[in-house]
Amino acid sequence: MFAKQNFAAIAVGLAIGVPVAANAAWQPVKPIEFIATAGPGGGTDNFARAVQAIITKHKLIDQPIVVTNKGGGSGAEGYTYTKAMAGDPYKIVFGTSNAWTQPMVSKVAYNHTDLTPIAAMVQDEFLLWVKQDAPWQNVQDFLKAVAAKPPGDFKMGGAQSKDTDETLTRMIDTAAKVKFTYIPFKSGAEAAVQLAGGHIDSHVNNPSESIGQWKGATQRPLCAFSPQRLPDGPKVTQTQNWHDIPTCVESGLNIPQFQQPRTVWLPGKVTADQVEFYVDLMKKVQATPEWKEYIQQSSQTDTFLTGDAFARFIKEDIERTRKIAADQGWLVAK
Question: Is the whole model's pTM more than 0.85, yes or no?
Answer without folding.
Answer: no
